[in-house]
Design goal:
alpha+beta, four-stranded mixed beta sheet, 11 helices, 336 residues, 2 domains, four-stranded antiparallel beta sheet, single chain, 21% strand, YutG-like
């Protein structure tokens, strides 16, 4: 992820009622990247009056379309939220409509009313970056979202400057942690974005058409027609709407992330070991959930032959999608 992060130190900062004014001066110290045409313009003022931005130089430069303010006793946090993600509807499900320039960013200016020295300000900056990364990793978002998340972010921390240690710094630090942690949660609410099962499936690098193609490869005794393809596509969407199928698919996806990431010392699936059969258990469960015993026999065909996209998937996900396809194929022909 491209980081656009900045620390402000030795700046003019004062509060007049509900108005905050930040302006740069000759003693400005910066840590971060401003060598960018979209960079923060430190020659302009940022004026906050009654929670309204009067001079929106930062939000204009970053093309952020929304801002909101959070406050605690000693800290004011100005959040700049940008969300260009759009959704499209597939039957009764939705998915993110990915495009080349889509983005999801949170830029922040943090104003601390206490006097802090550079070392203290730098510590808070590091805490802010670390907590943001930790929070987003814990969200386990679909991989395309993780890849573009905060690709154009910024973090500016401002305080009245001091050469001395602040005796209340530990209290201020805890207040900072509490406020910035809450800002990450509120960000997703403010930009009104959530993610569904299709986002996680497409996040693996394939989509419904790939599943339909794989299903049709093992079609026997019937011609490959647009009508059958349409029925299979609709049945896949209907099956994926089942909460039990969702639970089984996500269980496999999450497990495989840990297996491939080698976060468990007892597990190594580099060679798809024969003694790992839980993937087949999940695949069978999905097939059975969709179309019963008939589908579990159909599952073996797709599991063994691995047509189309199934041949390119990892040990856990190839079986769960074999189960999904087998169940959907059995269902449409059972109804037919």
């Amino acid at each position: 992820m491209k980081k656009l992060t900045t620390i402000f130190m030795n700046i003019n900062l004062f509060e007049d009622g509900n108005k905050f004014i930040i302006s740069s001066n000759d003693n400005l110290s910066v840590v971060g990247d401003l060598n960018n045409s979209k960079g923060l313009d430190v020659t302009k003022n940022i004026i906050i009056n009654n929670d309204e931005i009067v001079d929106e130089c930062i939000s204009h430069n970053f093309k952020y379309n929304k801002h909101y303010i959070q406050k605690s006793k000693n800290i004011t946090l100005i959040n700049f939220a940008n969300n260009s993600l759009k959704t499209e509807k597939l039957n009764n499900l939705k998915k993110i409509k990915y495009k080349n320039d889509f983005s999801l960013d949170l830029g922040q200016i943090i104003i601390i009313s206490c006097e802090l020295n550079f070392k203290e300000l730098l510590e808070l900056y590091k805490i802010g970056i670390k907590n943001k990364e930790k929070y987003y990793n814990s969200k386990k978002l679909p991989s395309p979202i993780q890849n573009i998340l905060n690709s154009n972010e910024f973090l500016a921390i401002a305080s009245k400057s001091s050469n001395n240690l602040n005796k209340d710094f530990q209290t201020i630090k805890q207040e900072f942690i509490n406020l910035i942690s809450s800002s990450f949660t509120s960000f997703f609410k403010e930009v009104n974005i959530d993610f569904g099962i299709l986002d996680h499936i497409y996040g693996l690098g394939f989509g419904l058409d790939d599943l339909v193609d794989a299903g049709m490869e093992l079609l026997v005794g019937v011609d490959d027609t647009d009508e059958i393809r349409c029925k299979l596509r609709n049945q896949l969407l209907k099956s994926i709407s089942d909460i039990n199928v969702i639970a089984l698919i996500m269980a496999a996806i999450r497990t495989e992330e840990d297996f491939i990431g080698k976060t468990l010392r007892e597990v190594n699936i580099d060679n798809d070991p024969a003694y790992l059969y839980t993937d087949e258990v999940l695949g069978l469960a999905i097939a059975n959930q969709i179309a019963g015993t008939k589908a579990t026999f159909n599952f073996k065909r797709y599991d063994e032959d691995k047509p189309g996209i199934l041949s390119k998937l990892d040990p856990m996900t190839d079986d769960i999608f074999a189960g999904l396809i087998a169940g959907a194929m059995s269902k449409i022909f059972d109804e037919h």
